[in-house]
Design a protein that fits this description.
single chain, 260 residues, UDP N-Acetylglucosamine Acyltransferase, domain 1, Udp N-acetylglucosamine O-acyltransferase, Domain 2, 9-stranded parallel beta sheet, 8-stranded parallel beta sheet, 28 strands, 17% helix, elongated
């Protein structure tokens, strides 16, 4: 099947398309945009480049992808947006390109479910299998790990890291890093246990979840100082508890400090 472009769409001749791409009515696609096989783009979407979009994505109406970053330092450098495969991007989403002050690229991985009105700012790095509920907002330079879930109206401060398998409650304001596996909620967001239900759904064994819960208690309820808790969790990971390795690595990496 050839590329299907609605006659009202405005597509720059430099844009590149794979097989079976569909472009809806009144959509605008600029130069230096590359779209992979099987991707469906609805009506009234605007995509500017440099932007690369993978295969089998679904992009709904009124989204704006690959626009210049909302950063006063931006001086029209050729930064980019990269979107992986099999993502669903619902209505009114805005994803901006990167800046030269960081890696120069904003990335969204594979198999993500991005609901309406989500904003992903410049230089954000989002992993795979995440869910962003309506109106989740990422400021610049945010990193989000695989399988993280952001509740509706979650706002994430610039340079914050959200660890893998985290979940935030509706209306959370995230000002510091959320370690992997943690449930967080509130303004400012605070820890409320581990995402045990999400871990069960993803096939984590009961004994693994129990190990993660013990690590959470070490971090938040043991009375240890933070550096002492980090050492204790690292020792558990080195002793062979594989699921604690991502947590230990996250805690050992400098950031904005973790939620407490």
């Amino acid at each position: 099947m050839a590329v299907s472009i609605h006659p009202t769409a405005l597509v720059d001749p430099q844009a590149q398309f794979g097989e079976n791409v569909t472009v809806g009515a009144y959509t605008i696609i600029g130069a230096e945009v590359e779209i992979g096989d099987g991707t469906w783009i609805g009506p009234h979407v605007v995509i500017n480049g440099p932007t690369r979009i993978g295969r089998d994505n679904r992009i709904f109406q009124f989204s704006s992808l690959g626009e210049m970053p909302q950063d006063k330092k931006y001086a029209n450098e050729p930064t980019r947006l990269e979107i992986g495969d099999r993502n669903t991007i619902r209505e009114f989403c805005t994803f901006n390109r990167g800046t030269v002050q960081d890696a120069g690229v904003t990335r969204l991985g594979n198999d993500n479910w991005i609901m309406a009105y989500v904003h992903i700012a410049h230089d954000c790095q989002v992993g795979n299998h995440t869910i962003f509920a309506n109106n989740a907002q990422l400021a610049g330079h945010v990193h989000v790990g695989d399988w993280a879930i952001l509740g509706g109206y979650t706002g994430v401060h610039q340079f914050v890291r959200v660890g893998a398998h985290c979940i935030t409650g509706v209306g959370s304001v995230v000002l510091q890093d959320i370690p992997p596996y943690v449930m967080a909620a509130g303004n400012p967001a605070a820890p409320h246990g581990i995402n045990s239900e999400g871990l069960r759904r993803r096939g984590f064994a009961p004994e693994t979840i129990a190990s993660i819960r013990r690590a959470y208690k070490t971090l938040y309820r043991s009375g240890l100082k933070l550096d002492e808790a980090v050492v204790a969790i690292a020792a558990e990971a080195q002793a062979g508890v594989a699921a604690l390795a991502p947590l230990a690595e996250f805690l050992a990496t400098p950031g904005r400090g973790i939620i407490r």
